[in-house]
Amino acid sequence: MTESTPANSDITINELGGVTAIPGLLSGKVAVVTGGGQGLGLAMARSLVDSGAKVVLADMNEESLQAAVTELGGDGVATGAVCNVSDLEAVEKLAEAATTAFGGIDIWVNNAGITRDATIRKMTEQQFDDVISVHLRGTWNGLKVATALMREQDRGGSIINVSSISGKVGNPGQSNYSAAKAGIVGMTKAVAKEVAFKNIRINAIQPGFINTAMTAAMPQHAIDSKLAEIPLGRPGEPEEVASVVLFLASGLSSYLTGTVTEISGGRNICSRSPSPRRGDVCVEPRRGGPTFPSHLCRGGSPDHREKRPDVPAGTSGRCRSVGSVSHLAFCVPAGTFQPDGRAASARVSFSRFACRAGGRRRRRPCR
Ligand SMILES: NC(=O)c1ccc[n+]([C@@H]2O[C@H](COP(=O)([O-])OP(=O)(O)OC[C@H]3O[C@@H](n4cnc5c(N)ncnc54)[C@H](O)[C@@H]3O)[C@@H](O)[C@H]2O)c1
Questions:
Q1: Model confidence at 136: pLDDT above 90
Q2: Is 238 in the same domain as 314?
Q3: What is the pLDDT of residues 227-240, one digit of tens each?
Q4: Active-site residue numbers?
Q5: Which listed site, 9, 151, 243, 251, has its alpha carbon 20 to 30 Å from 24?
Q6: Going by DSSP bridges, is the β-strand pair 260-263/200-207 parallel, antiparallel, or unpaired?
Q7: Cα-to-centroid distance, 112 and ligand 1 (Å)
Q8: Residue 12 falls inside a structural domain
């Protein structure tokens, strides 16, 4: 241990065992966090401040901005700027304000975001444009201003762009959001190549299902089906996103640029459903029994049978026609179903019939 290494007892560890701050790690650094008035942005700001950085929060919501600045310890360590990230001029003023307040910028987090969910059939042009404007244009504005300033300062820098797992896999009802979040990945890599020679690093993160106001607003059936896809079996906490931002903001990641880090509890590692766990039970297809959403159907599996030799042949996760409906035999967590086949747990949602590909006459096994 060197003199400048903080003692273990100084490192902030949360109840999940996660490290949320490392005092002194960012001493002398200045960070801007857009959308920092609440949610993930505020958690990131807290982690940066607790690790020694001074932070400028930017948000459209003046009220939450002021409350957040106070919560972080007030003017000496944090300040707020009302800013619409979609407006380049406003973002330029934000950078000026940060430079005036704290003498430059070393870290910039493009985090501000909104959702305007609707299926492609119902989504309006306005809903599409609003989401693209905040996420894609807003991130581009942040990159343009932050890289210009960092180049001028000539002391390197770290920029973190907040994408989403939606940008990797596409979420139904989020064609606008998924497009914007996928675009952020391409933008991250392109600009990372442009400015790497100045030791300016740009990385993206893709949070999955995190407990915030944004996800609390989702309907219960959508929450249930997302939880069913998470191998770690729980939603993430804002601090667990913040700690990755801290890593990317600091010298701990000095050789990383153009990367995309998924923070999702393993969700969407691939298109398969979660692996069976100890205590799982196998559900046989039967008339009136449970049906499964198609993502489980896709994941259902020869390899589940390999991992679970005790699962009898014929219950390998293939779709089976029982009467007029296709059912899926699958390994599910014990307690998911009551003896009569109704749901006993929220881990698997089965609100719609699975595997109806091919129509009533031509059913085929799911792959
Ligand atoms: N919560 C999740 O599960 C999750 C998952 C993946 C990605 N994300 C992304 O993380 C980021 C933060 O999400 P959150 O859950 O904390 O959301 P949130 O709604 O709690 O916070 C977003 C903040 O951005 C601000 N904002 C909105 N539009 C703005 C604009 N034009 N200019 C400046 N500020 C603006 C809001 O006022 C708000 O304070 C977003 O980019 C979101 O897409 C969230």
A1: yes
A2: no
A3: 888 999 899 999 99
A4: 177
A5: 151
A6: parallel
A7: 5
A8: yes
